Amino acid sequence: MATYVLVHGAGHGGWCYRKVTRLLEAEGHTVYAPTLAGLGDRSHLVSPDVDLDTHITDVANLLFYEDLSDVVLVGHSYGGTVIQGAADRVGDRVGKLVFLDAPEGRSQVEAFPALLKERENGRVVDGVELVFFPSEDLVRFFGVTDPEDIAWMLPRLTPHPWKSLEQPLVLNNRPALEAIPQYRIVSATSLALGIHNEDLMAKARAEGRFWEIDSGHDLMISAPEAVAGLLTEIASA
């Protein structure tokens, strides 16, 4: 049985993996779905100090304090940057990295420049610059169309601290990080938009570590069975 740590993307929380978590646990796997500081059930902790390093520390500390090893570390969207940083710090605890529809770059803004438009819709609350304010349009942007899923998601989404999206990712142990097997699961929608690094996608395809799911960006919500099935396959690879 495998141990999974599922890291969410911007504006979400560990709650977004509920369907996938239940499917994996039903198979006997151990699953952790932490919520990053300032988001979801930890939204009361948002502050001007919350940045990418804060979120990397959230995940690295979980791996250490729970004494986890050979973890399948999964990052959705922005979470893909977070898991890279965590694996760079505590790579000896990570067995595999899975990028779940997660574009890569030195920062999220570099990976996905369209975020700069989202910043125009943001605002400063209690000294914190926030983006991704919840709305039905935002949920549809995430590719979720089922009315029940929309009703479930909307009250749980929280604004995201811009600072964490803008901060560049700094890696100190790149050779060790690159030695960890990496897998890529992408949504058909994001692939069609061309937001993923073509070289990384080609490398993953050549290695047999690439899958496409016919779904929108939040594929852990809209296609949980497909995601859980691939995560099980990856763990046993």
How is this structure best summarized?
This protein has 237 residues and is an alpha/beta fold. It contains 13 helices and nine strands.
What labels would you give this structure?
237 residues; alpha/beta; Rossmann fold; 6-stranded parallel β-sheet; 42% helix; AB_hydrolase_fold
Shape: globular
Uncertain regions spanning at least 5 consecutive residues: none
Q: What is the CATH homology-level superfamily? A: Alpha/Beta hydrolase fold, catalytic domain
Give the end-to-end Cα distance, rounded to a whole number of Å.
12 Å
**Elements, N to C (H/E):** EHEHEHEHHEEHHEHHEHHEHH
CATH class: Alpha Beta
Number of helices: 13
Helicity level: 40-55%
> Based on the structure given, which CATH architecture is correct?
3-Layer(aba) Sandwich
Question: What radius of gyration results from the CA coordinates?
Answer: 16 Å
Q: List how many beta strands DSSP finds.
A: 9
Q: What class, by secondary structure content?
A: alpha/beta
Query: Major sheet, described briefly?
Result: 6 strands, parallel
What count of domains describes the coordinates? 1
pLDDT averaged residue by residue: 95
CATH topology: Rossmann fold
In terms of DSSP E residues, the strand content is 15-25%
How do the strands of the widest beta sheet line up side by side? 2-1-3-4-8-9
